[in-house]
Amino acid sequence: MDSEGSRRVLDPAQDGAAFKALTHPLRLTLLGLLRQHGPATASELAVRTGESSASTSYHLRVLAKYAFVAEADHRDGRERRWKSVHAMTSWSNEAMRRSPGGSAILSVLHRRQIEHLQQSLDRHETDLESGLLSQEWQEPSGISDMMPRLTPESLAELWEAIRVKTEELTARDAEDPRAERVVLFTAGLPLAPDPAAGAEPEAAPDPADASAGPDAGSPGASAGDAS
């Protein structure tokens, strides 16, 4: 395992058990809640998830065993509070697919991220409709599904540019009282040509992309596990 600031970098060859621990859906949910909302007790997380406190307590201990969460400062002496150790978990996709069971683990984690996207969209729409979010968020919010033609090198460069710019803007807005938690999903999924469709046309803007907002992809505030 390696770590860089708030990012934890897992090595599939050494951290197989940690990866396996993340495939449990409730553990991913608990980790995501701690990353998004900050420290909480097992009982508080039980209320949020609809699980028993015994269940959330058990799965928090598993996450702690593999250093995803740790004990936080207690408000009193009655119950442990837990916090996320890192804001994001990352890994090498190539190394993951070479490791035993790695492809299956990646599939589970990616599908959990898709579930989180749906949950985030539902909450976003509800927050706008109820007035919990001001209307100034209406225009910059959204999801797009652009399909540019890129080389592997360009896609890697795009990922790095997104990471650097996100860190820059996060630091700039850190003390701004108008700043809100933004669930930012990014996805780069190359597709092989479809033989039934013949030669693919040159890339063009997707007419379905009417959003002024950023492209969809991985959260920062979800379980936070992004490749």
Structural notes for this entry:
By secondary structure, this protein is mainly α. The protein has helices spanning about 15-20, 25-35, 40-50, 55-65, 95-100, 100-130, 150-170; strands at about 1-5, 5-10, 40, 70, 80-85, 90. The chain has a 3-stranded mixed beta sheet with strand order 1-2-6, with no helix packed on it. It is globular, with a radius of gyration of 19 Å. The relative contact order is 0.16.
- Principal-axes geometry comes out as globular
Helix content: 40-55%
The fraction of residues in strands falls at 5-15%
Radius of gyration: 19 Å
Q: Largest sheet at a glance?
A: 3 strands, mixed
Poorly predicted spans: 1-5, 203-227
User: How many DSSP H or I helices?
Assistant: 7
One letter per element, helices H and strands E, the order comes to: EEHHEHHEEEHHH
Arrangement of strands in the largest sheet: 1-2-6
Q: Supply the helix-strand structural class.
A: mainly alpha
Alpha-carbon distance between the two ends: 15 Å
Q: What is the average of the pLDDT values?
A: 83
Q: Number of DSSP strands?
A: 6
